[in-house]
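Chain A, query sequence.
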Amino acid sequence: MSVITISRGTFSGGKLLAECLAHRLGYRCVDRDVIVERAAAHGVSQDLLRDALQKPPTFLERFGHKRYIYLTLIQAALTEEVKDGKAIYHGNAGHLLLRGGANVLRTRIIAPIEFRIRTMMERLKYSREEAAAFLQKGDEDRQKWTQFLYGVNWGDPSLYDVVINLEQMGIDEACGIISGMAKQPCFQFTAESRRSMKDLALASRVKADLVLDPKTSELELDVQASDGEVTISGKVPLLSEVDEIERVVRSTPGVAVLHLDELVSSTRD
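Chain A, predicted structure.
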């Protein structure tokens, strides 16, 4: 069993491919709305969470620290949802949000622009000009989003294990290729990869707990986890805040050992 992420442009066939793979492999199909709903359970607006996954830098820059909060909650929701494997995520930035989780099959699907335009015209009754403009803006926003947040080019093939062009093949053929790859040993969940995904889920959960607590919500910290051993690093305005960090993290289920030695104060108490 594995975790598959599908990166795609709007109306590029990503949802159809995910549904085909779920049926063929017996995996769960997880989309962006499932993750947003799970993250929003903590009292955050679903609309703002969706915007954090879609809007380009001007929106993200305007919200400043809230961007960090939204993405932290989304990552925690996604890792919790897929940590046991047998899941397909076809939503924004799955391959980036799950970086650090072993044996994730990262796929990218591309389709000819005319195919995408026709699909949008048929489903949403857009004119050709409206559909073309919508798709162009959507692709540009995705490019700006990934460059701004992760410093990478959304279309860089090195970010993926496989890039499939639907110009000469259909969804069924693409589904066959990817399902075959998912069964290869390198993408199976071994004991080591399960541990790696569990570590990523715990680190993400710790970060989410920190942003949800009023005493630590303004901090942006790096969190690493390994077999229940959690290390937190970064700058805190006052060293007295370390006690609050410790209080929050020790209450997170799964944390057995906590290291705070790498926290430094940006000012003096």
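The longest strand covers residues 229-236. The two ends are 50 Å apart (CA to CA).
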